[in-house]
Amino acid sequence: MRKLDKIIIGVIAAIVVVIGGVYFLGGRGSDKSTSSDKASTDNPKVIKVAYATTNFPITYQNNKKQGDGYDVAIMREVDKQLPQYKFDYVGTSDDDVLIGVKSGKYQVGVKNIFYTEDRAKTYLFPKNYFGVSDSGFVVRTKDKDKFGGLAKLAQNNGKLVPIAPQNGQYAVIADYNKNNNPKIKLGSADTFVVSDALKWVNEGRYDAFFAIRPMYEANVEKKNGANADLKGKLTYVTLGGIKTYPLFNKDQKEFAAAYDKAITKIIKSGKASELSEKYFGQDNFKLLDQPFK
Fold first, then answer.
1. Structure confidence at residue 4 (pLDDT)
2. How many whole angstroms separate alpha carbon 274 and alpha carbon 277?
């Protein structure tokens, strides 16, 4: 065989090998990878659930250094409904819950999260909520009748502590202002220390602070709270309930769909209300039966 013929045959053989390899990796090989990644009861897919460790009684670590709180407990109920997944709970900071879910370090995160359009651009929200947050105003006790409500604050020209636009509470005030007059003056602000906001209300710089009940109780009602000295001077007034959600990484559509089916059953069974009573001392789901006032 001539040298030129040998070279041509060698080149053709190399091309066949390359094409065959591409076919295997891109076709049959990818099918195998897809099936192995798919969650099943025989091969449960590990899901990292991030939770903030300092938001008692919503998310925290108990005496055994285990994840606890309403949000963690309700996710454990979801876990029971989904044998094709295995949940691994990771305690971390508030910021890392958001950063980690966005990057894919965690598949889902929980920390009393409200839905906002801004967040929905970055994260995947499921169709169904899994909890309800008791949300209301912290006002001076002596001025409860004057500022302890949306209409009262507006009618008496009260000053509300500014709210970050990405916060679900901002949307509540914005919706109120769309349908009512006079309106509440709604200022926007970045994050600030909660204990400072409570002091501002007590000092009279502002007349109301939009908060959640657990936060108020932890800071004011507890003996070792950051603002325990304000007990009796400040009062919490419930305005209504805001739905809370687990926050999914954008790539977790299949997992989010499975969650939606599971949480629907859990809420209908009454288990979610039972856990709300356990961790919050009341059934927060009942707050959804009444509009914000």
1. 40
2. 5
Cα(190)–Cα(23) distance, rounded to whole angstroms? 53
Q: Model's pTM, two decimal places? A: 0.84
Q: Of 3.40.50.2000, 3.40.50.720, 3.40.190.10, 3.50.50.60, which CATH number belongs to 45-132+246-289?
A: 3.40.190.10
Instruction: Give the CA count within 13 Å in the CB-facing half-sphere of 272.
Output: 23
pLDDT value at residue 37: 59
Q: Give the sign of the dihedral formed by CA 180, CA 185, CA 186, CA 191.
A: negative
Question: Of 49, 235, 222, which Cα lies nearest the Cα of 137?
Answer: 235
* Greatest C-alpha distance within the chain: 106
Residue ranges of the domains in the chain? Answer: 45-132+246-289, 133-241
**What string of DSSP letters covers 194-212?**
HHHHHHHHHHTS-SBEEEE
CB 106 within 8 A of CB 49: yes
Give yes or no for a contact between 194 and 201, defined as CB atoms under 8 angstroms apart: no
Using N-to-C axis directions, what is the helix angle for 271-280 and 70-81, rounded to 10°?
Answer: 160
Task: Name the nearest CA neighbour of 208 among 136, 137, 134, 292.
Answer: 137
* Interior/surface letters 222-244, b for 16+ CB within 10 angstroms, e for the rest: eeebbbeebeeebbbbbbbbbbb
In 3D, which of 116, 107, 112 has the Cα closest to residue 251?
Answer: 107
63-109 pLDDT, tens digit each: 999 999 999 999 999 999 999 999 999 999 999 999 999 999 999 99
222 Cβ contact list (under 8 Å, min separation 6): 228
Over residues 234-281, the pLDDT tens digits come to: 999 999 999 999 999 999 999 999 999 999 999 999 999 999 999 999
Instruction: Provide the percentage of residues in the chain whose pLDDT is more than 90.
Output: 79
